[in-house]
Amino acid sequence: VQLVESGGGLVQPGGSLRLSCAASGFTFSSYAMSWYRQAPGKARDLVAVISGSGGDTNYVDNVKGRFTISRDNARNTVYLQMNSLKPEDTAVYYCRRTGTRDSWGQGTQVTVSS
User: Fold this and answer.
1) 73-108 tens-digit pLDDT
2) Which residues neighbour 94 within 8 Å (Cβ) at sequence distance 6 or greater?
């Protein structure tokens, strides 16, 4: 299993970013996928989940209405569209197969700052 996150960067408050997670080594469409984030000095937290088909999604309360998780099973990629970004969204973002103990990838750094 390999998961490679990308798309992070420095953005001003109110801005947008789209993160990507390219997956390989397993049958992608058979697994729900999750995005997590870890802010400096804090635990890694779940942000959003999407079912294998992409038909069901769930979000933590503090990103609802701002973040959208999606997937392209033909490209073995899961995305996280982040809008109306806030400084408290600053973190390293990771993806993982939902409910597994896959090794964490390198993550992608998102910094929201003016």
Assistant:
1) 999 999 999 999 999 999 999 999 999 999 898 999
2) 3, 5, 35, 36, 37, 38, 44, 104, 105, 107
